[in-house]
Amino acid sequence: MKIPEYIKDILGNLEKAGYEAFIVGGCARDLLMGRIPKDWDITTNAKPEETLNVFSEGKYENAFGTVLLPVRNREEVIDVVEITTYRSEQGYSDRRHPDEIKFEEKLDKDLERRDFTINAMAFKTQGDKCEIIDLFGGQKDLKKKIIRAVGEPADRFKEDALRMMRAIRFSSELGFEIEPKTERAITKLAGSIKFVSKERIRDELIRVLRSDRAYDGVMKLHELKLLQYIIPELEKGIGVAQDRHHIHTVFKHSVLALKFCPSKDWRVRLASLLHDIAKPDTKRMDKGHATFYNHDILGAKYAKKIAQRLKFSGVDAEKVATLVKNHMFYYNVGEVTAASVRRLIKKVGEENLKDLIDLRVADRLGSGVPKAKPYKLRHLEYMMEKVRKDPLSVKMLKIGGNDIMQILAIPPGPKIGAILDVLLAEVIEDPGLNVKIKLEKRTKELDGYKLEELREKAKEKIDEKKEEEDQELKKEFWVK
Hints:
Radius of gyration: 31 Å
Structural class: alpha+beta
CATH class of the largest domain: Alpha Beta
Shape: flat
Largest sheet: 6 strands, mixed
Strand order of the largest sheet: 3-4-2-1-7-8
CATH topology of the largest domain: Beta Polymerase, domain 2
Helix content: 40-55%
Distance between the termini: 54 Å
Number of strands: 12
CATH superfamily of the largest domain: Beta Polymerase, domain 2
């Protein structure tokens, strides 16, 4: 187990001062699984004031017995370790926070209050050896890959309703199954998730979406009756049939789009899940076929409303809505010009281009089609890359038309364009020439030449270079 030396030092200093100290909770679980913990939690029988006597840099500004200890490497803070006094908790009238906290002398009291068996283990180091304290079968559940509540599941969820979402989030992140009794308690108490702040629900949902099993997590939220309180709009798609390009109902298609989304960005995954959110409300029958006119426009409004309700940042809400609004973009090879692609880029933002492609791939695969990225999508990627690059033009040069007019003391006219084309052709041949002082000197030299002839040769070189770059791009995206 790779335990940092500073964690060993903290444990050692508490023990030298006469107190017990253990690594506990999620970091204990991660270490036993061979994972590197993101955060370090230590529990001790030292009261907060006693912990501060051992670590003068610590801060204690809460009612939960947690001292925050910054760990420094010279002047830089490299970590903040939470050192919490053993405690028990009584009464949860708001289904989220304990009404009363009592500091305890024994570790078992502290472990009893924790949510799941795999998070209710503690251990300490003694030289190269570890002593593991496991009162509730956490090690066995780790081996079996099971999420099981400590003690009576209903009691744990009545204490803190967010634990229901945490169970599903751990299942998604770790690839574990939720133990049947724990599942039944979630289903029975699902409605109490309404007592949890939207910010806490949002954070757990993001972690589900970020996980490698986001689809499984969302389906579990649905199966255990939580999704109806989080994103009820999604469940309106249950049983809503589609036709033509879709073999699944709206709900099944939406969750499958999430499953097949190639992006790791949780916002793109959320957009994949919500892209058809307005279809149930826009469905109409026309000559025996289902239509969903403007579901993309209305869907963007729904997506933004959902994101705002769950307290997502304005930036994240806007991105999700933008992707949903534009997921129906039209593109047909041979019909769409570079100018129309530029308009699309301006409309959705260059930063959203790849995400929009990923959403289209998710949409296609979620519809049951065999090819994720057909030729025309690859062609669109090629066109996007082509138009987003700085084109080979006089804009690349370090001098412009106004400079040439000043250097040669001439009015606007075709001669200026001719000189710029010649300069560009020479810079293409030798990029080192694209320095203002060199271009100014070369401009004076070109003043006496027959520029129309030079201009024709320059255009040949420019066109040749453009074609060369275009062929390289086409190879990159496998298009003709």
